[in-house]
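Fig. S4 source data, part A: sequence.
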Amino acid sequence: MTKKQRIGIFGGSFDPVHYGHLILAEHVRSKAMLDKVIFIPAFVSPLKQGLAIADSRHRLNMVQLAIASNPAFEASDIEMSNVRVSYTVHTLEKLMAIYGPETDFFFITGSDTLFEIEKWYHFKTLLKNAGFIVGNRPGFREGRLTDHVSYLNAEYEATVSIVDIPEVDISSTDIKRRIREFESIKYLVPEKVEKYIKDHDLYL
């Protein structure tokens, strides 16, 4: 019997992608024994409508630059052809059609996102067709998170697991603030991403 491929799905604005994203993805890939992780920049994040973000093509380019040295990482523009709000359930349907039944998918997400999962569009379909791997900083909401994972797994026959991750205090919001205020972003983003931001005058 052929072993199923295990693929992590890491979606978000990546505006811009930074080392916090990369550390989370690599840590989860290793701990959860994923064959690869697909980074999927959203064309329009459902939670960020009306907010100014960098053009989707710039964000995809930055992700490609950031992950180029890791053969287990891949970038996808699967959500960029929609020119509309990106719903995760639609993305999963497309990936399932591309990779077929011999692949198991796992969404990589943070603990805060998991507490909102029941508000997601067609969340029951998501929980049925894919696993969720929650990256959690050790000790952060540990008891509450464990209880919520147990609830989701029991209530919806879901496959949700927790992976403790290193604490890395980097945020895209702070990076954009630093750029606007002409502060350094070195060591917050990969050098090629830093250069790309400067070359294209992003976030000023």
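Fig. S4 source data, part B ends here. Residues 5-199 form a domain with the Rossmann fold fold (CATH 3.40.50.620).
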